[in-house]
Amino acid sequence: MAQACFNNMPVSVKMYLTPPLCLENCCISTKSACHCASTSATITLETCVCLQGYDLIGITETWWDSSCDWSVGMEGYRLFRKDRQGRQGGGVALYINDQLECMELHLGMDEELTESLWVRIKGRAGAGDIIVGVCYRPPDQGDQADEALYRQIGAASHSQALVLMGDFNHPDICWRDNAAEHKQSRKFLECVDDNFLLQVTEEPTRRGAMLDLVLTNKEGLVGDVKLKGSLGCSDHKMVEFRILRAARRAHSKLTTLDFRRADFGLLRDLLGRIPWDKALEGRGAQDSWLIFKGHLLQAQE
Predict the structure, then answer these.
(1) Within-domain flag for 259
(2) What is the pTM of this model?
(3) Cβ-Cβ contacts under 8 Å for 199 (sequence gap 6 or more)
(4) Fewest 10 Å CB contacts: which of 1, 83, 93, 211?
(5) What positions does the domain Endonuclease/exonuclease/phosphatase occupy (predicted)?
């Protein structure tokens, strides 16, 4: 999972978050996510977003389908998603702060072959727009789908500012030496080099392997890259980063909290005083989330 910030304003990108996110039985990337609304993984995600105030959250391996439509929305965010068709697993999603002006891009290059989606986020006047992409490349993906993905990356790389995140499943790549053992991994490195992309993740994200990557075509565009804990039962770490470019925000008269000035130590202390075992006794996941959210909002005041 990746999480990010625009111009030092928290943006959440599931490393896009990028740990494969599957929301059933608290599992990430191993089970179907059809019961998203009632799982602790969903609650964990919403709690994380509520506390950190991310602008953008990228997710891979959603395992979503049409039966999840009612349950995957998140208040304050616009959801872009691309579900795998015809079989279980896979899928990608982007949650974007609904105050940001954005639109989905269709690059028109065999999109049905790839598990990727692209969104243009409007930049402030004079700053230029930002293209954000999220991708899941299955370990067994064939050459045809790889080539389609490379064409999409090439088209998106022509933008002034590109941030691409995702699980690319190339564990054999040594980014320090720009080398790889397998042919498909070397082809991916060629794509990265041909499009002058920089890979900014520096630590392993799953069992010693660097599977989850953040790529950009502009030096200095992405900063403060950090690995966070896993979401739910995922065995991938979340990736948090900042997009150091101002984005255009819609004007709103709504009063919102300024998380940059929050006393998180006090917030944790206030929440720690609540007898959670008693407060949540006999409650289901949805009721437990509503009770927790109520206490959280009260503590924020």
Answers:
(1) no
(2) 0.73
(3) 175, 192, 213, 214, 215
(4) 83
(5) 53-236
